[in-house]
Fold these 2 entries.
Entry 1:
Amino acid sequence: TSLNLAPSSLLETAIRSAYVAGNLMTSATASDKGVEVTKLNKKDLLTKIDPLCEEAIKKTILARFPDHLILGEESVEPGPSASSMALSSFLEKSRATKKPLWIIDPIDGTTNFVHDLRYSAPSVACCVNGEVVVGCVFDPYANETFWAVKNEGAFLNGERISVKPEACLEDSVIAMGAPPGKLSASKSIKGFEGLLPKVRTIRMLGSAALMLGWVACGRLNCYWEWDLSSWDVAAGGLIVEEAGGRMRGLEEDTLKFDVSERKIIADDGKCGNDVREVLKESGLF
Ligand code: IPD
Ligand code: CA
Ligand code: CA
Ligand code: CA
């Protein structure tokens, strides 16, 4: 059955589909990158290219695996409740039909894409039995391909990567989200205020998927965000874990990465507990 698929064929398809989308991104003209509509609010953007990338990724996956299920950001109504509901219904369907479920973000970092800030990336993950087994995040500007296969490690452009913990929180570089929702923005502001005096610095670079890749290869010690969707974290979460880091729920010490977790903290295996403590002291939860 499809559950006995070799991880390598899933990985190859994940990478190939991320490349197809990445090429669409880098060949887009300035007018292609204009905002077509705003979704939840004026901070939540959509260009012509997002759905094109989503279609291209889907087409690439279905050409190889016609019966697999695919959940993509641009095929779901905007907003956290629709995204959580879509995930549960796709996971349920995947369980019932025993078909793998792909979770894709055609462009993670659309705001960066619109403003020509060169930090955005397609993110492609495949789940079998509800668990992410393969993930790829492709940065088409830096030409960096992050990928991971469950139990087989994490790689950047073919080289194995691992997290790089610092001695203490004071030496750690933390990244966080600046999410479009009101509640998550106010949580982020509180968290920023509490954390900044206690760490080396904080970065907010606008692509959760890429930041997870950067935690995995040791450029960042930690990434946290208050409200993300499955397509933001599915691939990057596996990449962090396979690089020896931890991908956990922000509030609870979940032992293992779960794609339905919306408040997440990824770390180098060391500073995450301290970061979580500071966020708690800052009144986030
Ligand atoms: C967004 C990015 C951003 C994060 C937002 C996400 P999108 O994804 O990952 O870094 O702060 O919460 O929604 O909409 O650009 O795919
Ligand atoms: Ca979006
Ligand atoms: Ca995203
Ligand atoms: Ca997106």
Entry 2:
Amino acid sequence: RSLEMDMRNADVASQFEAHFQPILSVQSGKLCGFEALMRWRHPTRGMVSPAEFIPIAEETGQIDRLGRWMLREACVQAASWPDPLMVAVNVSPVQFRSGGLFEAIEDALRLSGLAPSRLEVEITESVLLADSAANLGLLRQLRDHGVRIALDDFGTGYSSLHYLKQFPFNRLKIDRSFVREIDNSPESLAIVRAIIGLGASLGIDTTAEGVETTTQLERLRAEQCGELQGFLFSPPVAPGNVADIIGEFF
Ligand code: G
Ligand code: G
Ligand code: MN
Ligand code: NA
């Protein structure tokens, strides 16, 4: 049977999981929160990567159901963490298109009791590329509600700077393709430095993704990057391992 059919028939709450990757302050090393990343524990295929199942979910209309569940699960988990730890949730452009996203977020916040300021929604610029007027309106509605908005994979699109003028993002996530080369490519270092400077000028937080080495960490500290995430500290972990990370880094 196809993954599509398996997904359609799956009881989401029993086959899908939210895993959490810690986000830390570059300067202090203290924990700021976690990014929630979806996992599918398929009954016969084992763990299926979101890189494989998210595109299928987007094409078949299943992303709305999965995304609604993910928002609830992430907010419910985050509500059990000490204040002010935040949770970042990836939201697909398809969820914007199909309507009901604001209500799904409102619902997840109400159900969990999580303060809106502790939820960050991560979007990619493709959200602003398509249906931009409607989507900008929805982003403003979320911000007015107190939810934070992050621009994911920053620097990889073809006109990222244009979007900074259109919407006051709370955070830029520096794509890991730049971070990976920061020690051996002067161009990548210059780009990371420029993004951090841009964030500082605009009052937008910057998070470096994919930090794997202490040399990268030291470089990011010298450049005064705000936060980081990456395998250097931790991969995404199951909810049962979150308390240990909070104990170690909060
Ligand atoms: O966790 P991993 O590195 O395998 O994630 C691969 C990709 O899947 C990343 O681009 C990530 O943003 C995306 N992804 C993971 N979880 C979710 C989710 O809950 N919703 C959406 N839309 N994308 C997700
Ligand atoms: O597109 P997005 O930024 O949401 O993707 C998150 C993905 O990045 C997840 O699949 C996560 O597993 C992966 N990831 C997190 N930290 C690292 C890292 O240090 N190195 C690499 N290669 N991938 C990472
Ligand atoms: Mn992300
Ligand atoms: Na990213």
